[in-house]
């Protein structure tokens, strides 16, 4: 499904008014297969999502609300997450982490789903914290290909690609062909050029993701020039220019953080 045109430019100006933008606690930012559209509404994590015993769940939820101040703190946490996502899209990466951290203080249950925070931590070179965030997320959602890859990307910066590959998080089969191939490439080692070639004539979204993850693979290998070629290409692709996908914004933020011209 085609995603709506992105209307907020990447900028470091944080004075832009906050706009309500729905999001998801899962890593379902792409518009193809995982979700019916790129930004399903955030749902509040509550204990009944883990427990079938509704009487027990209600009791636990009541205790939690009594401790934290009730549902209002959960709502404020969701607002903080949305604000953090807006700031990230604008290029204020540090500001986005501050909002995500605030969300966790308001509702600690959100930490297990804050993949957005992991992405921001990567761009602040806080790789150990980023890897921890993605590992926590994958423990909750063991079929998430992209979080597994991003954990590897963080750990490659800490230990090198070869050592990071030994710690690679195994996840279930991704329904998206491009992400299955990307996952295999990061897990086993491979040729990013083949990934891009394989999807160069496919759907616009597939070419975007192939280019983005080819560039990220090269970055994990410390090949900055090749990384630049592919990530800039992902930004300039039709999908990268028109989509409101959070990962399309990420590609632009990546270039901003590396001082690459678009």
Q: How are the secondary structure elements laid out?
A:
Elements: H1 54-68, H2 71-89, H3 93-106, H4 115-123, H5 127-140, H6 145-159, H7 161-166, H8 177-188, H9 192-199, H10 204-220, H11 224-236, H12 238-242, H13 246-257
Helix pairs in contact: 2-3, 3-4, 4-5, 4-6, 5-6, 6-8, 8-10, 9-10, 10-11, 11-13
Identify the notable features of this structure and list them briefly.
single chain, 262 residues, mainly alpha, 61% helix, globular
Write a structural description:
Helix 11 packs across helix 13 (246-257). The longest helix has 19 residues, at 71-89. It is built from 13 helices and no strands. With 262 residues, the protein is mainly alpha-helical.
